[in-house]
Design brief:
Blueprint: E1 7-14, H1 32-39, E2 42-44, H2 54-63, H3 67-70, H4 86-92, E3 96-102, E4 124-128, E5 138-141, E6 148-149, H5 154-168, E7 175-184, H6 193-196, H7 215-245, E8 252-258, H8 277-280, E9 284-287, E10 297-299, H9 305-315, H10 330-333, E11 344-348, H11 357-360, E12 365-369, E13 373-378, E14 382-387, H12 405-421
Parallel strand pairs: 1-7, 1-8, 2-10, 3-4, 3-7
Antiparallel strand pairs: 2-9, 4-5, 5-6, 8-9, 11-12, 12-13, 13-14
């Protein structure tokens, strides 16, 4: 690596499932900028959101810890870090840090002012705890408690602000910028008209695991969902253009990912928390600085939210806090030999909200997602077993099928070893 540390731009959407990009094979969605970015980047094909809901992911991103360690395994509870955070780690290394958009780890109300001590090392600050009213979107700037409003569709306005941040910090000390968008999370039909008109619900090709009785609704949802995705794709293109205009594209590490997916009718389910691929798998694209020898291709690493902090620090050759539990995959990314487990731990410790046990059939679970298999058990017994190679849309549940007894036992043993290693009772 060069003596100057790379800039870092971390772009992440809310509820963008792995399947919903052109480069991942979705026949419907228009994502030309992301498709081009993927061609020029490392694409992690098995990235997961191990606890697939907003606040747990964000808390793991900020701390490098698992949900049962940092304690945020439902939405709208405060994060109390047990060690240096993402922003604090980069700030301590001399980076100018910035955060724009959705936060969602403060609690105290989704529109409440977030005091400086609750910003965990981020200096530049244009943030709201949480809103999905994308066209009437409030935020707080710096240390002021005055409520301000983004102009128009918030993701586009936030991206413009991020572009200005990049222009203002393209020289001098390296910067670390997080741009956290609210879309494509529902409400689905609130993207700008220019993107909505790109999609005709009747012409959409559905995934084969959407039940027939839900297909009309799924088409309507997806038309709006894809419109949000295309709006964000344009935002990605704008960020990339700014990096090139500033002449720092070769000196910047750029990440595109999401906090979790969205069922959108698959398996007869909606939203997140569920253990199926549409909920747990997320895009993860890593565009590396020019000092890296191998910058393109695919990687099967099952990277999860706790792994992101140590991996980013490792890529930038910065020290990793002892409090971090996630795995640093930077040696592998740098071309060094590194052993890693291909099993990602997935969990829902406490169903809530859109997947309450009482009203929506939600259940607590633990499971593993490997490159080939998904195995999940609830608190009483095995629940799901899929061969993702032969059954990529997860239609044939093999759990407790006598033909797969040995396989199920091997996966069950592997899951229990992971739970023991992580102290999960």
């Amino acid at each position: 690596m060069a003596s100057r540390k790379p800039n870092v731009v971390f772009l992440f959407a809310d509820q963008w499932r792995q399947q919903a990009t052109g480069f991942a094979g979705d026949p419907n969605v228009h994502t030309p900028n992301l498709n081009k970015l993927a061609e020029e980047s490392l694409v992690f094909t098995n990235a997961v959101s191990g606890c697939p809901v907003c606040s747990p992911y964000r808390a793991s991103l900020l701390t490098g810890q698992r949900p049962l360690t940092h304690g945020v395994f439902v939405n709208d509870v405060p994060l109390v870090p047990k060690g240096p955070t993402l922003g604090e780690s980069f700030a301590a290394a001399g980076y100018t840090t910035g955060y724009i958009g959705k936060w969602h780890v403060n609690d105290h109300g989704r529109s409440a002012f977030i005091p400086p001590e609750r910003r965990f090392g981020f200096q530049y600050w244009k943030v709201l705890e949480c809103t999905h009213d994308y066209n009437h979107s409030l935020y707080y700037e710096g240390d002021s408690s005055e409520k301000k409003m983004w102009d128009g569709y918030d993701a586009i306005a936030q991206t413009r602000d991020a572009q200005e941040f990049i222009r203002n910090h393209s020289k001098g000390d390296p910067f670390f910028l997080v741009l956290s968008w609210g879309p494509p999370h529902e409400p689905y039909h609130t993207a700008p008209h220019e993107f909505q008109k790109q999609y005709n619900a009747e012409n959409l090709i559905l995934r084969g695991n959407v039940p027939q009785d839900l297909q009309p609704n799924a088409r309507k949802w997806l038309a709006g969902y894809y419109a949000h995705c295309s709006a964000l794709d344009q935002c990605v293109g704008d960020i990339l253009k700014t990096l090139y205009q500033c002449g720092i594209e070769q000196d910047t590490l750029l990440v595109f990912t999401s906090d979790h997916g969205d069922m959108l009718g698959s398996q007869g389910e909606c939203f997140k928390q569920r253990p199926w691929d549409e909920s747990i798998r997320v895009p993860f694209v890593l565009h590396l600085p020019s000092t890296f020898h191998k910058r393109t291709g695919t990687r099967p690493i099952p990277i999860d939210a706790p792994d992101i902090l140590p991996t980013l620090l490792g890529i930038c050759n910065l020290s990793i806090p002892e409090s971090v539990e996630g795995k640093d995959y930077s040696p592998h990314i740098k071309g060094e030999k590194q052993e890693f487990d291909d099993a990602a731990l997935i969990m829902c410790p406490h169903p809530f909200g859109q997947w309450t046990a009482k009203h929506h059939g939600g259940r607590a679970y633990r499971g593993i997602r490997t490159e080939r298999f998904t195995y999940v058990r609830d608190l009483k017994q095995p629940w799901l077993l899929y061969d993702n190679f032969t059954d990529p849309i997860q239609m044939l549940n093999l759990a407790d099928d006598p033909q797969y007894t040995k396989l199920q036992q091997r996966l069950d043993d592997r899951l229990h070893r992971l739970l023991e290693n992580t102290g999960d009772e």
